[in-house]
Amino acid sequence: MHRYRSHTCGALRDSDIGQEVRLSGWCHRIRDHGGLLFIDLRDHYGMTQCVVDPDSKAFGLAEKLRAEWVVKIDGKVRRRPEGTDNPDLPTGTVELFIADIEVLGEAGELPMPVFGDQEYPEEIRLKYRFLDLRREKLHQNIMTRGAIVDSMRARMKKAGFFEFQTPILTASSPEGARDFLVPSRIHPGKFYALPQAPQQYKQLLMMSGFDRYFQIAPCFRDEDPRADRLPGEFYQLDLEMSFVTQDDVFAAMEPVITGVFEDFAKGKPVTKKWPRIPFAEALRKYGSDKPDLRNPLVMQDVSEHFRGSGFKVFARMLEDATNQVWAIPGPGGGSRAFCDRMNSWAQGEGQPGLGYIMWREGGEGAGPLANNIGPERTAAIREQLGLKEGDAAFFVAGDPSKFWKFAGLARTKLGEELNLIDKDRFELAWIVDFPMYEYNEEDKKVDFSHNPFSMPQGGMEALQTQDPLTINAFQYDIACNGYEIASGGIRNHRPDAMVKAFEIAGYGEETVIERFGGMYRAFQYGAPPHGGMAAGVDRIAMLLCGTNNLREISLFPMNQRAEDLLMGAPSEVALKQLRELHIRLNLP
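^ that's the sequence the OP posted. Answer follows.
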């Protein structure tokens, strides 16, 4: 028999009854049932109930065992007594009657229990991550994440993509987020950077004639912590394709992402045919460029009903042509208490309040706004929004470019408070037609809105003849349940158009050559039209594991201060190491 095990802790079944077997694992739970000791033995594969009685020579040692001790157990498989089966365990019809126990590794007093699913402070969980990872839910999440990556990889290869690995040590890129820098020992005073994304390398692969590339790429950004991104590093399904239009990228990737979701949705519906929502429409209808389409609420422009009305606050605002009034429907929210609660919430978000109209029995509007604009206008708003008695509408007014984010928050809050969001589905959509440029108020100049490498819609002609702020890019995101899970674009592969695009944003050709010399040089020697995208592995795994915390799907994450509490990183280094790198510290 093998030194440690003949079977795993998830393997034994009725067909093994009567066999002498050997198991090794962790003591998950130990129960004393008046003379009989039960040990739930756990390993990576599952759990087996082991039992020992006082007549066994192993009983004395069994009494000394504690949670998370690692033991080897020899014994005979037998049927569980009638009425004691555990249908939740694959091994739940059998148990191992213990003949012998060997302790392989004792465990000290635990800083946090492995048994059970109770919440523990994040600091403890991250410091003792190896214990946290033994817990069933987190252990399963990590295995699911690995299976999701396997599914992505298999589907990409089936779609004709080939997997490449691009460099981890690369050149610093001044645009985008802050780089992680790596000092060069061989070249004193010079630095490599860890890649924020393989963007330039994957485009260079298209210049090199490889046609379809993908990788599960690690990306590094020295950003301040964000709720929807792990500090330091994250992984993405990165891909690029040659000789493609935007539609070709969509046709290739929609079945891959849909298929991955269907593989792990556990029967929850997944969008079959994804809608394509222009960026401007997404802001206007949902107040977000990553809308949660499980929320049925759609905002509408109701400015006409307030123009010249008795509600002077809105009427005066609308004298400025840039201002609008948007309505967010609130079906079932037509009580004074609920409307006042939403108003208080808005004030907590730093707003002056949230105007509302309620529709009572008989269909009459109620509330300060209704009283000011009169029954005719109130009825017209109700009809436009398709509301009925017992419903309400909430209003946001001003310059939409300044209030759309708050309007989106209010839409989400209403959907949650009124229980309108179907949590048991995955709603996927393409967000398209992102603006190429935006006006930077701080620097008083036109700037790139998103990705500077995207092809402008209309190409060189648009760059030469259109107002830059009206140019859209061949740029797109994938939104799912309120998260952006992928971003991409058709690339600007023409050197003259690339220089012109950067000129509009205030950068000369010399800047393009200095910052993106390798790619710009490659464009001079026959560049194919190409495009691609990158999908966030971490966010997709988070959604499919049913959690809203990225730490629940990552092996060894950092805390919100970008510290690895388990390994003690970042840490000070020896003076000898600094001298080798020709670095002297200048601490604040």
